[in-house]
């Protein structure tokens, strides 16, 4: 006679967080895009949804730190631990070391997760490991693990960044401010809203006006979806740095006797900047054309432009189906490593590899070249990356300037003079930083067709 298996009580918010980690690991998903769907799937109430968000996002941010702690508590390499069990151990470690969760609750709920998703033996293993983790607070673990560590290894453990990422950020910023930047990458960003011109006014959005963008507010609390203007598509969620990108492109003066009628967003997906640009263009009687290569992202762009107007073309931005010399303003918000947005997309630090840089840089140069070919004389192109890595910022711009004699770099410092300490690596360019400006680390350079 087979005995019935005992029922395992699984905590649903923690199960939801585990599903997010699985999607990131297996499907290369972005946590901030997966979280809303997972929360909806499990029908989490606001309090539980907030717990799941902090648990999943916080675990991803501090994964490097927790892996160092777990390695000290496990008698085998972490790569030999079953992947889903390791995900659960990281979640348990975050609760024990960085959240106000009682140790017994953090351990028992994690063990139940492992039991339900793996096996009884794995659950016993998880119980033993987490009891070792719980012996010390995080500060004591860091002191022990970094006591004899070299400076690079110390930063890896204490700030939870891969070594190559730390090296690239040091090269871009210098050593003095590096700890402040690394620490800022591990702080959950505030929710920032943008009022789309012609559809909403900033005054109608709840929150504190953004210090640099004239279109944004920092949400004081609650869900953005509960804001009427957001629900109606008249406003959206957008980092202040991204707002400044669109604002700067609209503000740069053109030269020559040509019109100011056609604007292009050459890498438009998912459409946040395109929506702001379309509103700004419409106020001047201009029209935005949004180009996006991937079909599913082009659909997101179309959804964002539903209220602001503008055309959407599903096409390769390096070969846009538009006549050369026919465009007045172009945005190249190029695909990049995303190392400037680690607050919002913490998993990017673990997903990206140094070898990605070459492929991305070649694409970035090709996109800038295509944008410049579209411009009429006197027109401008804004090259932006959500990365401060110098290979993706100044070196791309310098390469383009060295290969073409029909363009010049525009000094845009005066247009953003209200943003302090934002000088970029090339004179006239702009570099924002999380620890200085509370934004993503956006780089901006404007090129004008001679």
Question: How do the helices and strands line up, and which of them pair or pack?
Answer:
Layout (H helix, E strand, L loop, with lengths): L11 H16 L3 H11 L4 H16 L1 H11 L9 H16 L4 H15 L2 H14 L4 H8 L5 H9 L3 H11 L4 H8 L6 E4 L12 E2 L6 E3 L9 H4 L3 E3 L2 H12 L10 E4 L6 H11 L4 E6 L2 H10 L6 E4 L12 E7 L14 H4 L4 H19 E11 L8 H10 L3 E4 L19 E2 L2 H4 L5 E7 L1
Parallel strand pairs: 5-6, 5-8, 6-7, 8-9
Antiparallel strand pairs: 1-3, 1-4, 2-3, 9-12, 10-12, 11-12
Helix pairs in contact: 1-2, 1-3, 1-5, 2-3, 3-5, 4-5, 4-9, 5-6, 5-7, 6-7, 13-14, 17-18
Task: Fill in the keyword field for this structure.
N-utilizing Substance Protein B Homolog, Chain A, Rossmann fold, 450 residues, four-stranded antiparallel beta sheet, eight-stranded mixed beta sheet
Can you describe what's shown?
This protein has 450 residues and is an alpha/beta fold. It has three domains: 12-143, Orthogonal Bundle (N-utilizing Substance Protein B Homolog, Chain A), CATH 1.10.940.10; 190-238, no CATH class; 239-449, 3-Layer(aba) Sandwich (Rossmann fold), CATH 3.40.50. Helix content is 46%, strand content 13%. The chain has 19 helices and twelve strands. The strands form two sheets. Strands 5, 6, 7, 8, 9, 10, 11 and 12 form an eight-stranded mixed sheet that branches. It has a four-stranded antiparallel sheet with strand order 2-3-1-4. A hairpin with a 6-residue loop joins strand 2 (208-209) and strand 3 (216-218). The mean pLDDT is 95.
């Amino acid at each position: 006679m087979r005995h019935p298996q005992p029922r395992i009580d699984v905590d649903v918010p923690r199960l939801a967080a585990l599903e997010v980690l699985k999607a990131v690991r297996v499907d290369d998903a972005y946590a901030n895009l997966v979280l809303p769907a997972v929360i909806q799937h499990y029908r989490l109430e606001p309090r539980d949804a907030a717990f799941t968000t902090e648990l999943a996002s916080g675990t991803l941010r501090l994964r490097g730190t927790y892996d160092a702690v777990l390695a000290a508590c496990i008698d085998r390499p972490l790569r030999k631990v079953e992947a889903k069990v390791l995900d659960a151990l990281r979640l348990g470690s975050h609760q024990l070391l960085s959240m106000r969760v009682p140790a017994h609750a953090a351990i028992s709920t994690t063990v139940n997760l492992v039991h339900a998703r793996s096996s009884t033996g794995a659950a016993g293993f998880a119980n033993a490991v987490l009891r070792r983790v719980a012996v010390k607070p995080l500060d004591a673990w860091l002191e022990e693990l970094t006591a004899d560590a070299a400076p690079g290894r110390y930063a890896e453990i204490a700030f939870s960044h891969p070594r190559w990422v730390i090296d690239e950020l040091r090269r871009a910023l210098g050593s003095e401010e590096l700890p402040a930047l690394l620490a800022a990458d591990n702080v959950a960003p505030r929710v920032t809203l943008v009022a789309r011109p012609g559809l909403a006014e900033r005054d109608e959005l709840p929150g504190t006006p953004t210090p640099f963008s004239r279109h944004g507010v920092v949400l004081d609390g609650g869900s953005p979806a509960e804001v009427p203007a957001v629900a109606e598509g008249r406003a959206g969620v957008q980092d202040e740095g991204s707002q400044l990108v669109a604002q700067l492109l609209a503000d740069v003066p053109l030269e020559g006797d040509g019109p100011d009628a056609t604007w292009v967003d050459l890498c438009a997906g998912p459409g946040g900047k395109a929506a702001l640009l379309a509103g700004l263009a419409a106020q001047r009687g201009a029209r935005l054309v949004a180009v996006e290569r991937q079909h599913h992202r082009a659909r997101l762009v179309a959804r964002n432009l539903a209220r602001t107007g503008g055309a959407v073309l599903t096409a390769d931005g390096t070969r846009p189906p538009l006549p050369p010399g026919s465009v007045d303003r172009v945005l190249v918000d190029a695909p990049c490593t995303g190392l400037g947005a680690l607050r919002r997309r913490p998993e990017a630090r673990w997903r990206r590899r140094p070898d990605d840089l070459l492929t991305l840089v070649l694409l970035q140069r090709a996109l800038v070249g295509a944008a410049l070919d579209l411009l009429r004389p006197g027109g401008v192109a804004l090259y932006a990356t959500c990365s401060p890595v110098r290979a993706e910022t100044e070196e791309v711009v310098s390469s383009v300037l060295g290969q073409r004699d029909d363009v010049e770099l525009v000094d845009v410092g005066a247009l953003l003079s209200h943003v302090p300490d934002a000088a970029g690596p090339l004179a006239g360019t702009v570099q924002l930083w999380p620890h200085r400006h509370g934004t993503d680390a956006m780089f901006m350079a404007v090129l004008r067709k001679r």
